[in-house]
Amino acid sequence: MGKLLLLLLIIVPAMEIGVLILSGNTIGVIPTILLIILTGILGAALAKKEGLNAIRTAQLQASQGQVPASVLLDGICILVGGVVLLTPGFITDAMGFLLLIPQTRAIFKGFLQKMFYYMVKNGSAIYVSGGSWKKRP
Protein backbone atom coordinates (compact mmCIF):
# COMPACT_ATOMS: atom_id res chain seq x y z
CA MET A 1 0.00 0.00 0.00
CA GLY A 2 2.85 2.39 0.82
CA LYS A 3 4.57 1.74 -2.52
CA LEU A 4 1.34 2.45 -4.39
CA LEU A 5 0.87 5.72 -2.52
CA LEU A 6 4.47 6.75 -3.26
CA LEU A 7 3.96 5.92 -6.93
CA LEU A 8 0.77 8.01 -7.02
CA LEU A 9 2.56 10.93 -5.35
CA ILE A 10 5.08 10.90 -8.20
CA ILE A 11 2.90 10.07 -11.21
CA VAL A 12 -0.19 12.21 -10.52
CA PRO A 13 1.66 15.55 -10.18
CA ALA A 14 3.70 14.78 -13.31
CA MET A 15 0.52 14.04 -15.24
CA GLU A 16 -1.12 17.20 -13.85
CA ILE A 17 1.80 19.33 -15.04
CA GLY A 18 1.54 17.78 -18.50
CA VAL A 19 -2.21 18.42 -18.71
CA LEU A 20 -1.80 22.00 -17.46
CA ILE A 21 0.90 22.70 -20.05
CA LEU A 22 -1.23 21.15 -22.79
CA SER A 23 -4.25 23.17 -21.65
CA GLY A 24 -2.20 26.38 -21.51
CA ASN A 25 -0.96 25.78 -25.05
CA THR A 26 -4.44 24.89 -26.33
CA ILE A 27 -6.77 27.45 -24.74
CA GLY A 28 -4.24 29.89 -23.29
CA VAL A 29 -2.72 30.57 -19.89
CA ILE A 30 -5.38 32.98 -18.56
CA PRO A 31 -8.35 30.73 -19.48
CA THR A 32 -6.54 27.76 -17.92
CA ILE A 33 -5.99 29.65 -14.66
CA LEU A 34 -9.60 30.86 -14.64
CA LEU A 35 -10.83 27.32 -15.27
CA ILE A 36 -8.79 26.03 -12.33
CA ILE A 37 -10.23 28.76 -10.09
CA LEU A 38 -13.77 28.03 -11.31
CA THR A 39 -13.49 24.31 -10.61
CA GLY A 40 -12.14 25.09 -7.14
CA ILE A 41 -15.09 27.36 -6.35
CA LEU A 42 -17.66 24.92 -7.75
CA GLY A 43 -15.98 22.03 -5.93
CA ALA A 44 -15.99 23.87 -2.60
CA ALA A 45 -19.69 24.68 -2.96
CA LEU A 46 -20.54 21.08 -3.88
CA ALA A 47 -18.40 19.69 -1.03
CA LYS A 48 -20.16 21.98 1.45
CA LYS A 49 -23.61 20.98 0.19
CA GLU A 50 -22.87 17.24 0.19
CA GLY A 51 -21.07 17.43 3.54
CA LEU A 52 -24.02 19.14 5.20
CA ASN A 53 -26.39 16.55 3.70
CA ALA A 54 -24.21 13.76 5.08
CA ILE A 55 -24.14 15.35 8.55
CA ARG A 56 -27.93 15.76 8.58
CA THR A 57 -28.45 12.17 7.50
CA ALA A 58 -25.99 10.88 10.11
CA GLN A 59 -27.73 12.88 12.85
CA LEU A 60 -31.12 11.59 11.75
CA GLN A 61 -29.94 7.98 11.71
CA ALA A 62 -28.20 8.35 15.08
CA SER A 63 -31.32 9.88 16.64
CA GLN A 64 -33.30 6.85 15.42
CA GLY A 65 -30.79 4.49 17.04
CA GLN A 66 -29.20 3.38 13.77
CA VAL A 67 -25.47 3.20 13.11
CA PRO A 68 -24.73 5.63 10.25
CA ALA A 69 -22.06 3.40 8.66
CA SER A 70 -22.95 4.20 5.05
CA VAL A 71 -23.10 7.91 5.81
CA LEU A 72 -19.65 7.74 7.44
CA LEU A 73 -18.27 6.30 4.20
CA ASP A 74 -20.03 9.14 2.37
CA GLY A 75 -18.30 11.57 4.70
CA ILE A 76 -14.89 10.03 4.02
CA CYS A 77 -15.46 10.27 0.26
CA ILE A 78 -16.70 13.88 0.55
CA LEU A 79 -13.69 14.86 2.68
CA VAL A 80 -11.21 13.28 0.27
CA GLY A 81 -13.05 14.78 -2.71
CA GLY A 82 -12.97 18.24 -1.17
CA VAL A 83 -9.27 18.01 -0.34
CA VAL A 84 -8.42 16.74 -3.82
CA LEU A 85 -10.37 19.63 -5.36
CA LEU A 86 -8.15 22.08 -3.48
CA THR A 87 -5.10 20.89 -5.41
CA PRO A 88 -4.71 22.67 -8.73
CA GLY A 89 -5.13 20.49 -11.79
CA PHE A 90 -7.72 18.91 -13.99
CA ILE A 91 -7.09 15.24 -13.19
CA THR A 92 -7.47 15.75 -9.44
CA ASP A 93 -10.51 17.98 -10.05
CA ALA A 94 -12.18 15.22 -12.05
CA MET A 95 -11.42 12.72 -9.27
CA GLY A 96 -12.74 15.16 -6.65
CA PHE A 97 -16.00 15.73 -8.53
CA LEU A 98 -16.44 11.95 -8.93
CA LEU A 99 -16.13 11.60 -5.14
CA LEU A 100 -18.64 14.39 -4.52
CA ILE A 101 -21.41 13.33 -6.90
CA PRO A 102 -23.64 10.81 -5.06
CA GLN A 103 -24.12 8.48 -8.04
CA THR A 104 -20.39 8.03 -8.71
CA ARG A 105 -19.49 8.14 -5.00
CA ALA A 106 -21.30 4.80 -4.60
CA ILE A 107 -18.55 3.10 -6.61
CA PHE A 108 -15.87 4.41 -4.25
CA LYS A 109 -17.96 3.49 -1.20
CA GLY A 110 -18.11 -0.10 -2.43
CA PHE A 111 -14.32 -0.11 -2.81
CA LEU A 112 -13.88 1.31 0.72
CA GLN A 113 -16.25 -1.28 2.18
CA LYS A 114 -14.25 -4.10 0.58
CA MET A 115 -10.99 -2.57 1.75
CA PHE A 116 -12.23 -2.25 5.36
CA TYR A 117 -13.60 -5.81 5.24
CA TYR A 118 -10.26 -7.22 4.15
CA MET A 119 -8.40 -5.15 6.75
CA VAL A 120 -10.59 -6.57 9.50
CA LYS A 121 -10.37 -10.08 8.05
CA ASN A 122 -6.54 -9.93 7.83
CA GLY A 123 -6.19 -8.47 11.31
CA SER A 124 -4.58 -5.24 10.13
CA ALA A 125 -7.46 -3.04 11.33
CA ILE A 126 -7.09 -1.01 14.51
CA TYR A 127 -10.08 -0.30 16.70
CA VAL A 128 -10.75 1.64 19.89
CA SER A 129 -11.88 -0.17 23.01
CA GLY A 130 -12.30 1.61 26.32
CA GLY A 131 -10.44 4.70 25.12
CA SER A 132 -7.21 2.93 24.09
CA TRP A 133 -6.04 1.84 20.65
CA LYS A 134 -5.76 -1.89 20.11
CA LYS A 135 -4.65 -3.98 17.19
CA ARG A 136 -7.25 -6.52 16.22
CA PRO A 137 -6.33 -9.94 17.74
From TrEMBL:
Pfam families: FxsA
Keywords carried by this UniProt record: Membrane, Transmembrane, Transmembrane helix
GO CC terms in record: membrane
Keyword Disulfide bond: no
Segments crossing the lipid bilayer: 26-47, 67-88
Keyword Flavoprotein: no
Name of this protein: Uncharacterized protein
Gene source species: Salisediminibacterium beveridgei
